Every structure is written in structure tokens, then in C-alpha cells.
């Protein structure tokens, strides 16, 4: 199953040495090169429990600002924190439904499996909050979502 959203955290490359740009035969500038330091795939849509199509559309627009082709300055941890705040405002002001998860857990060997339920938007916001808290101290880090 293809992921619903793929989140990648990037940082500038930290290669040692000089490199040749084979297209120009000049020393390569590494300032525009980034490497992934973390990747997470969201398998279920975080918007499934959002009852309002307008809110879903505004969230998708907010996520589009983190598309890989957008400028790095627009995809910073500070901008991600703004998105997290927007999601938590939605969670506080609207009733977002809990959804059945395809995962089941068995609490004891002799018990029947229990299907997990989750608030997918809350789970998504919590993961984004963790990303902010974890990577905010790395200089020039950026985030992409696709």
C-alpha cells in the first residue's frame, strides 16, 4: 500500500573535500545540496475524521507549502510549528472523529484481538510536533511532504 503522505527532514550536506561539477568543469557548490536525515510515511489519511470539507481543503493547502519544489525558506521547522498550531486549533474547535485502524492488538494470549481506534489528525499533529521538537536545533533543516 502506498503511503498517504511522505515526510522527509533534510539538512545541508556535510561532505568533506572538494568536488567537481562535471557540467561546468568548475568546483561544485554544495550550498544547494541537502541530504535526508529522517523519513516517515503516513499510511492512513490524517483527514479521514475531519467532518468539514473546507477544513480538509485548508489543511491540504497548508501541507502543499511543504512540497519539495517549494523554496527551502518556506519549509523550515518554524513553518512546521505554525502548521502544528493550526492543526491543534482545529482539534480544539471541532469534533474530529476517531477512526478504526487496520491494526489489531492482542492483550493476552487467550483474548480476542482488539481493533485499535485512533484520531488520525491528532496522531499526525503529534508526529509533526515530535519532528519540531527533535530537529529544531539542527541548523538549516527543512521539511518536505508529498
Describe this structure in words.
- The protein has helices at residues 53-64, 77-93, 120-135; strands spanning 5-12, 20-21, 26-27, 34-42, 99-105, 114-118, 142-145.
- It has 146 residues and is of the alpha+beta class.
- It has one domain (5-14, 26-145).
- The strands form 3 sheets. It has a 3-stranded antiparallel β-sheet with strand order 4-1-7, covered by helices on one side. Strands 2-3 form a two-stranded antiparallel ribbon. A two-stranded antiparallel ribbon has the order 5-6.
- Helix 2 runs antiparallel to helix 3 (120-135).
- The two termini are 15 Å apart.
- The mean pLDDT is 87.
Walk me through the topology.
Blueprint: E1 5-12, E2 20-21, E3 26-27, E4 34-42, H1 53-64, H2 77-93, E5 99-105, E6 114-118, H3 120-135, E7 142-145
Antiparallel strand pairs: 1-4, 1-7, 2-3, 5-6
Could you name the ranges where pLDDT drops below 50 across 5 or more consecutive residues?
Answer: none
- The proportion of residues in beta strands is 25-35%
Adjacency order of strands in the biggest sheet: 4-1-7
The biggest sheet amounts to: 3 strands, antiparallel
Task: Output the helix-strand order.
Answer: EEEEHHEEHE
The assembly state of the depicted protein chains is single chain
Give the termini distance in whole angstroms.
15 Å
The number of E-state strands comes to 7
Shape label: elongated
The radius of gyration is: 19 Å
Amino acid at each position: 500500500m502506498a503511503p498517504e503522505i511522505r515526510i522527509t527532514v533534510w539538512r545541508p550536506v556535510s561532505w568533506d573535500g572538494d568536488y567537481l561539477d562535471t557540467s561546468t568543469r568548475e568546483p561544485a557548490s554544495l550550498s544547494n545540496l541537502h541530504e535526508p536525515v529522517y523519513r516517515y510515511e503516513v499510511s492512513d489519511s490524517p483527514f479521514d475524521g475531519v467532518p468539514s470539507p473546507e477544513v480538509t481543503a485548508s489543511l491540504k493547502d497548508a501541507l502543499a507549502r511543504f512540497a519539495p519544489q517549494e523554496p527551502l525558506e518556506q519549509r523550515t521547522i518554524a513553518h512546521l510549528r505554525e502548521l502544528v498550531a493550526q492543526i491543534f486549533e482545529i482539534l480544539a474547535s471541532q469534533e474530529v472523529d476517531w477512526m478504526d485502524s487496520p491494526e489489531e492488538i492482542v492483550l493476552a494470549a487467550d483474548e480476542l484481538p482488539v481493533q485499535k481506534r485512533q484520531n488520525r489528525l491528532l496522531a499526525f499533529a503529534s508526529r509533526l510536533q515530535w519532528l519540531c521538537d527533535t530537529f529544531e536545533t539542527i541548523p538549516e533543516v527543512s521539511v518536505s511532504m508529498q
